[in-house]
Amino acid sequence: MTQQQARVGVDIGGTFTDIALDLNGTLFTGKVLTNYHQPEQAILDGIHLVCERAGIAVTEITTVIHGTTLVTNSLIERRGARTAFITTDGFRDVVEMRTENRFEQYDLNLTLPTPLVKRTDRYTVKERVSATGEVITDIAPSELEALVKRILAEGYEAIAVGFIHSYANDVNEVAVQKAFADAAPELSVSISSHVSPQMREFQRFNTVIANAYVRPQVSAYLGRLVERLKSTGVTCPVFMMHSAGGLISVDTASEFPVRLLESGPAGGAIFAAKFAGSYGENQVVSFDMGGTTAKICLIEDGKPKTANTFEVARTYRFAKGSGMPLSTPVVEMVEIGAGGGSIAHVDDMKQIRVGPKSAASEPGPACYQRGGEHPTVTDANLLLGRLDPDLFAGGEIPLSVPLAGEAMTSKVASVAGLDQQQAAFGVTEVVDENMANAARVHTVENGKEIGNFTMIAFGGGAPLHACRLCEKLSMDYLVIPPGAGVGSAIGFLNAPFSYEATKGMYQRLTDFDPQRINALLSSLRAEALEFVQRGAGDIDTTTKVQAFMRYTGQGGEIGIDIDYKDYVAGDVETFRAQFEAGYHRLFGRTIDGLGIEITNWSITVASTLAPVEPITLRRSGQQIAITKTREFFDAALRKVVTAAEVERHTLQPGDAVSGPAVIVEDETSTIVTTGYTVVAQDDKSMLLVNKKIMETI
Fold first, then answer.
1. How far is CA 100 from the centre of its chain?
2. Beta strands 669-672 and 661-664, pairing class
3. Which residue of 282, 298, 395, 436 has the lowest C-beta tally within 10 Å?
4. 413 secondary structure, DSSP code
């Protein structure tokens, strides 16, 4: 008899913890409210819930895959460990001086984000390594010994070490790490040459500080989680989703927790990418809206767009540059404070604003009946008829229309001079426009026109808002996959084991040195493969290589895919041609007369996944008979309409429902506006098609 496979994906969000159980290809899902004081308890509650629905014992689970926002939340809320930072003499204030770029050029009272480590907790030591890796000044043993004693006497919980040019030679950072290991082996020490060995000291220093800052908390949390799972009978391996869209071991996650920054949203991007690949859709925008935030990611040729930097905790109107830039591999996406729990208010100009503050799960939106007093997006959707108060979260969380109305009236309607329905509509329209603007900007920044894309929406809130976003963005096609309400958790189950190793090595193409390149790529691949095998053992893998290149004099690079092979002198023209092609794709032109240089390199080793099964989308279908209706407010028409109400599980491939309609399921509801028709697909997805397009099919 074949051994039963019971794989569980768990995503902790700001409001809900989502759980997906894949039992030999059959999916069981559930949602529970996130427990802020004991996040692991929500995981255990969720696992018991889906196991009960599947009819199995928790002891039968074979794999647990977990993603969390714990790292991001700790950085935003400044709830990390008391950390000391050690750097090269003369560079103590790099993390405070930042770069010369201003995120708001004309603000005379500009306030820069406060570093995670105060100046009094930053220490220096006399050492120096050149940009080529030559050791210019060794650390004097006596100075290092005195520094270690001084720092230990202060009682720090974590140490971060970042030296100038340590990406080129880590010898001095390793010496400091060893000195602390000998003196206080229990103390957590992170060094930049291991956490983020890339050029640009400001980003590298920020990254190692962030890693050290959250490492004790994350390590303790993961330790508690594994122990609680074992005590419950779940003794299987536990893996973590990392920000670049792959799986790593709990040990690796504990050592490099900064790689977990966007682990939950990365699972959502993997979820959407699988469907994009199945449908052969080469231009897809994924829209993930949960209880606290909304995330938008571009997926091209079946793969999410990735980057080697990420900015967390933006403090000034979400402006780029106002946050904490970290150099760590991530799935590139734009994230805004727009979720079901986002709080609405009226500003001094009598304008409705939504977010970024969220009611989260404690106390939650006013309609949750858990003590929340502020109106949220969920309250607005309830008042507009888009949610069924008796069937929310499969009936697990009954919603109160009177409490939602009271909060909306007292905090928004009465202040803005509107009636209750106008206020609720204003809240949803503001949040929809915020998300639409974010999607427009993200695609334009990548040289794309969003109207040419297909949207794939998931998360508990996205199906409620996605059709309206498509109207605003002139998008004709929208896919709501099966299990959309817990999409990120399902995405974890589709992710490969992977690890991205990075390294800064500056080289101009005029000084092309294939031997140095080959040695570096070989070293990076061995490093990445070791981390993959630590989690997955000896498995078949693929290797992806990127060189980050720019024209001489430019301040930013673009990632260029290159082959993993032994290079020779003549390959310099290959690098040049691929860079110019990539630059032209992004900016529509190349620049004559400028040199080209490479700054950073990365290699990603990933386990080989089975090819996706191709599916042809049905873009039209046969209208079904409607037996139940509900009224909701159609934003485009600015009025209440009578809509068909259909349970999703009753739809068969080829069935069509013309909007306005509400398609209901346990984890979410899909709003089909008057201008769209929904067509059921062979894989249980739903395709929403603009009616104007259907007339031409």
1. 28
2. antiparallel
3. 395
4. I
